[in-house]
Amino acid sequence: MARFDTIQLHQSGAYAFLSVPFCDMIAFGVCIALAIYWRTKPELRRRLIFIASCGLMDAAFGRFDYLFNNNLFYPCLDLLIVLGVTRDLLLGRRVHKVYLYALPLLIVGQSLAAYMWRSNPSWWQGITHAILL
Length: 133
Prior knowledge:
The protein is mainly alpha-helical. Helices cover 77% and strands 0% of the residues. It has helices at 2-7, 19-37, 42-55, 58-62, 65-69, 73-92, 97-119, 122-132. The protein is elongated and about 50 Å long.
């Protein structure tokens, strides 16, 4: 779609936005791969699949113009994951270690994706042009 948006619709910045779906695919893939690896540990697997599922919601949050134009769709995703943290706190009186590792890593990845999308550095332009051409 980025290639179509750029070539057919003559939109600028479509290549820069690729950082968001790439970040989402990496996060989803890593969470699901780890859930498969730890399939015999239901406590880990359940939380990893929950985090991966929450990561798919950025497209839904991105449909709200205010959230999308202000980069607030990623904090909305993180708030969904915080609901899982809250559930753990209420039921088990502690935060599970999956959240302690995954949430900071997700926030770093999301921040990097938003930076690459909004500032579109030259090195990112080179990568996207190599991928799409």
